[in-house]
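Hi W.,

Here's what went into the run:
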Amino acid sequence: MSQEHAVAKRLQSELMNLMVGPSPGVSAFPEGDNIFNWVGTIQGAPSTVYDNLEFKLSLKFPTDYPFKPPVVKFETSCFHPNVDLHGNICLDILKDKWSPIYNVRTLLLSIQSLLAEPNNESPLNSYAASIWSNQEEYKKVLLKKYQEATGITV
Amino acid sequence: MTSDDQYINNIIGWWNDITAQFSIPSTTQEIVALVDQSSFQSQQLKIDILKRIGCDQDKQIILEWYFELITCFYKNTLANDFWNLFKGVLDSITIDNEKVNKKQSKLINQQFTLSINFIYKVFIYFENNINLIYNQFYNNNNNDNDNNDNSNNVEYKQLIKKLQDILLASLTLSSKQTNDFNKILYIFFERDFISFSKPIYFKLFGESLEDDEIDQEENEDNDEQVDSRLDDSINEIKYKENSFMDLCQKLHTLNFIIISEDIFTQILFKKIYQHIEKICRDIFDKRLLAFILDCQDQVMFKWLGMILCHDDNEFYANIFQHWKTRLEFSIYEHFSEQRISQLFDMIVQYPDSIPALEDLSVCYNKISIQKTLISSLIKVVYQRLLHPGANTNDIITQYISTIASMKIIDSTGVVLEAVGRPIRTYLAQREDTIRCIVTSFTDEESEIYQEFSNIDSLDIIGKQEIKDDHFIDDNNDDFFDEKQIYLWKPSQSIIENNNNNEKNNNNNNLFKDTISSLVNIYDSPELFVNEYRNMLSDRLLSLRDYNLDKEIKNVELLKLRFGENSMHNCEVMIKDISDSKRLNTQIKKTINDTQENPISFETLIISRLFWPSIKEEEFEYHPSIREYMEQFSKEYSRIKAPRELIWKKHMGFVDLEIELNGKTIEYSVSPIQASILLYFQQLVTISIDRLSSLLKVGNKDIIRKKLVFWLNNQVIKEIDQDQYTINNQEFDQVDEDDDNSDNSEDDSGQDEKVTIMEEEEDQQESASAREKEEQMRVIEKFIIGMLTNFKALPLDRMHSMLSMFNAEQYTSTSAELKSFLSKLINEEKIELSGLNYQIKK
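Here's what came out:
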């Protein structure tokens, strides 16, 4: 109980930091009345193929956070070599490379940079990985998929 | 002739004898005359004849027949005689009407006395006859002396009772007559009570409690001086008492007393109420309850005793006891009612009203008035105190008095809790409450300050609450004394009890001392500490010497109350000031060694983290000062490396001596105004635009506002649109004629000294308001964050999310949030679509 309380406190202060000093392109807020479940928003970084695209994510924090990483998934379908069709993300710091010094902000920024710099060695979406080299075609497919998923034409 | 005929003849003969013997005189006067004869008691009816009637049935018939006769007489003769006395007197009178015409009441009194006298005689007459008949029938061996023995006989008693009932019934045949009869009794008893009680009250109070009309009337009667009447009054009272008791005796015999019970009740209750009203109204500085009880004892019970205890009759003695209890209760009731109706005023006059409050406390413990007291006081408090027209300071003072007063009335705190709550809630809503309280803490003239500085009365709640955990301090013996735990009783209250232990402690604390009860208005003492910090900041920043003694003392006292840690910031602030003093001296020495400087320049160096946020206002000083400031900064960095100075340029003040047109005037102004004037000294004529670029202030309105001060003081004048120059002319002629200006009082050319501290409107924006603004900026960021992640949200959802995730800073109500959101909409940051708010794209 007290541990859960401590985690809630930590999340609260992370929220405060995130709100008071926002980073461009990333944001997150607890969903509903549970501070352990957050909704995140990432905007594709400018001058990348993901420019102008906005993705929603879900962040579920374990009760032993920050010693264990949160479970992060894309809620908006994301066409990306390291994101599967269910939104699962293949990112080392979400798995074995997680460290308690990371926080919501750094996590979101990492995912934002992952969008522009995929790790094509171990793709979850091999089709995306295969056309990554052809950025023009990649962008075409990406926008089509994005439009299918969100109804927004960019 | 048969034996039957003989029997019938006999009966007829007896009958004629009987009717002859028992014939009732035809008028009341005759009976009265008969009774008045001295021989009446020994008079014997020649009723030997009755002895001849042996059969019980016949005796019964004879008695019934005789009662029939009496009834007829009562109805036809006596009742008429009685009502004739009151003809035309009663119609215009109603008892509900407070004022019965004195003449009428006097008349009724006389007539009533008269009528009772003859009714009594008639009654005696019949009683006597019945007695005789009864003796003849049932007590054959009697002699004259045994007459009275009948009074213990149940059968005889019933006969007498019947006689009484017939009398009353005959007098009050119609409902109008019943009414009138009650009226007569009422007026009679009331009048008697007044004339009985008046001399006693007069003795007790030295003044009459009744209206003076009777006095006058009696003066007319007796044609006496008031003084001589007083001397005679004892005999007079005796006489009156005797005649009254005599009359009561008669009323008893007629059995009229019992039926008058309602009437006494009315009269006595009315009198009790009137007397209490008269004695107590607006008098709070004397104990009155015991006095009232005592004088009611002397007056009412004595009077009642005169009516009821005519002899050692046990029945009436019981009734009297019963009455006494009832009246006593009624006195308590009326008394507390009266006191409660003025409770608010009593609280206002606290501590002068302590005696009255103590009286009320006696009532509170005796009869159940808790509910009335609470509801009535709360009602008055809402009506008279908790409205926008009341000064916060007054509300606080009244709140303090309420606490003290309720403490007297009810030591359990139940009443206080109920009454204090609405005041607390209201005070908590007012913005300036904290400021008022903190000001009164530290105002050396206020009463609270006395208590505040009196460390002995200090309790430990402050510390305890600051600690913020429920750690039991060893010193808190009196709180956690075992004995006290066992002595604890549930409050016998209509109020929901706080089963929360901490709350109960707070209840006790309310009693402990005034300051803690004020602090308890808010959930945490932090608010007070913050407010004090803001006040201290204002005071320290406007300090002209470095005299910190008072502030140090206050902080020490507050430390005792709120705990060591809470005052940490304030201590640093005070230390900043004294450090500044040293540093100034040190740095000035160095600078003066290297350079000749015409300006006396003092710097306050404050540690930003420990002070309340200070408003920013950017501008550039005049180069001559800037130069000095840079030197100071450099020197500071040298001494205090690696620390550096960040100048709050708009803070502080400048003493200027202005020589203009041969006059010297001293001003004390803000730095920006001094800078403006320095530029005028240098350039003489300047436009707003130029000033704006020199001062590096973009907003020209601010500069205009500052210039107004110099324009008003006629140091600078406007020569053209936005062009200003130094006013070299003499002060305006108009002004010189006008004697109301201090400046123009004498023209001798002597230097005039005027110190004008310019009031900055911006400054009025209090520190707490600034803090609030800062909080709302954070809230704005939260709102944007929420809307970024959730696209669109309705108001209540946002309100609940803010309350949940930013509880520390978010204190607004949902209505306040709504207006804040409207502000954001106006700033085009967000927009409203339907019921949902969303980010403006």
